[in-house]
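Hi V.,

Quick status before I head out on leave. The structure for the redesign project is tokenized and pasted below; the design run finished overnight.
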């Protein structure tokens, strides 16, 4: 198996990440445990940024914090010179609490509330990615009430079906997101935005979907939008300063995945936009992107302790771990595939094929089907790779299972950045049926 980032096997035959033995991490912080390889996140951020810099293209690389939002992660994104994409009041609050510069925050969402919009206006965020006519009107109204002006991008759906799971497709015409590019909605949104007194229309946004391995969809989206920008320049005297082509760059979860490097997505996108701009005689817009998964996905590993085992004779061996769909819902939601090893027996050869079950009361709570492993027993440590994106961020308390903590490892040091939830946390918001009667 090909390891990611700094992951390797040490002389004890244990999996090591960021220069730390994962067996030690499990002893110190308990299991399940999300472990992030910080050096790999830095490497990913730098490869996106340096490609733009090398090609001399004005750009913003915004980390899509929905992939993994936590104060320390937002601070790491700032250290790496990234902008930040948030999609809810909670993600915005996390960013602000982390001290992230508001002017580098981009606010997404197809149903932003009045409270969320007001908070973002008040804090002076960099730009709203406006999703629909309701939001466009509301934003103008709320800006007027606060006497403020905001910058926006209009999110369009270019009518592209990228090759990925149906649930993570977003660029097709029949989508809950954005203004249709081909059906006249984007044209009227532009007209409305240009008339608004409190809105500065910077440009256009589009995001075609997630876990995409080819550049074709991005290039087609760029081409379609540039053609529209040409029409809008002629018809509305609107010239976009920014073209945001979203995130969605695919990563290698298993050996079946064969992603292209981040630099290649960026180079091909830049070349396409440049060609189109030259062909139409348009100014080259700034290019913004917003990778989430490709920034943190393969930097995350989840450590679990193995517990029970059940054999279905002549069918399958179920091996259960101390987490499951509560800390990684992706296999249940998208039939997502993962690879794993025994972290404490990393040099041992596979001897049996087992299926890794979670501990939730749900038959669909299976993390990995048919995984070749060395002979395992209770208390062995299972390391599931590539859980850094949409693992912790989609974690939940089904069955009142507390969410695991998050540890950052780098250069031989481990830092706890999110604490483990406790049973007390599980009832923190509960109120009794009846107030206790006092004597
Ligand atoms: C608007 C938008 N931008 C960025 C992203 C990040 O996508 P990914 O994590 O695939 O890079 C998403 C999620 O798919 C998104 O909806
Ligand atoms: N949460 C999804 C991706 C959705 C991305 C957000 N638009 C995943 O785990 O793959």
């Amino acid at each position: 198996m090909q390891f990611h980032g700094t992951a390797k096997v040490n002389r004890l035959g244990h999996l090591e990440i960021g220069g730390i033995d994962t067996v030690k991490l499990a002893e110190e912080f308990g299991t399940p445990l999300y472990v992030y390889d910080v050096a790999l996140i830095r490497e990913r951020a730098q490869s996106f940024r340096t490609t733009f810099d090398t090609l001399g293209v004005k750009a913003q690389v915004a980390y899509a914090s929905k992939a993994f939002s936590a104060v320390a992660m937002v601070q790491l994104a700032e250290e790496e010179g990234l902008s930040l994409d948030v999609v809810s009041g909670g993600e915005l609050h996390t960013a602000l609490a982390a001290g992230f510069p508001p002017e580098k925050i981009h606010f997404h969402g197809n149903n932003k509330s009045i409270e969320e919009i007001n908070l973002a206006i008040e804090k002076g965020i960099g730009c709203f990615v406006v999703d629909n006519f309701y939001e466009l009107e509301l934003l103008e109204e709320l800006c007027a009430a606060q006497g403020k002006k905001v910058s926006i991008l209009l999110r369009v759906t270019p009518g592209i079906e990228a090759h990925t799971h149906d649930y993570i497709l977003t660029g097709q015409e029949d989508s809950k997101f954005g203004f249709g590019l081909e059906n006249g909605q984007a044209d009227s949104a532009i007209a409305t935005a240009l008339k608004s007194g409190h809105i500065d229309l910077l440009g256009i946004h589009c995001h075609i979907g997630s876990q995409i391995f080819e550049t074709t969809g991005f290039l087609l989206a760029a081409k379609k939008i540039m053609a529209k920008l040409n029409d809008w320049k002629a018809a509305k005297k609107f010239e976009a300063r920014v073209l945001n082509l979203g995130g969605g760059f695919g990563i290698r979860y298993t050996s079946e995945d064969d992603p292209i490097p981040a630099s290649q997505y960026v180079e091909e996108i830049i070349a396409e936009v440049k060609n189109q701009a030259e062909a139409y005689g348009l100014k080259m817009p700034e290019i913004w992107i917003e990778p989430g998964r490709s920034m943190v996905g393969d930097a995350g590993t989840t450590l679990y302790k193995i517990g029970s085992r059940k054999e279905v004779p002549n069918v399958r061996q179920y091996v259960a771990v101390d987490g499951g769909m509560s800390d990684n819902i992706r296999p249940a939601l998208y039939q997502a595939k993962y690879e794993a090893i025994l972290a404490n027996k990393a040099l041992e050869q596979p001897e049996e094929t087992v299926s890794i079950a979670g501990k939730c009361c749900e038959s669909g709570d299976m993390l990995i089907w048919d995984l070749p492993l060395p002979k395992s027993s209770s208390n062995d440590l299972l390391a599931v790779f590539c859980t850094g994106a949409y693992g912790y961020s989609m974690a939940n308390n089904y069955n009142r299972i507390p969410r695991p903590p998050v540890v950052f490892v780098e250069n031989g040091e481990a830092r706890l950045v999110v604490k483990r939830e406790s049973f007390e946390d599980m009832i923190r918001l509960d109120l009794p049926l009846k107030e206790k009667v006092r004597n």
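Above is the designed sequence. The chain has twelve helices and 21 strands.

G. will cover questions while I'm gone.

Best,
W.
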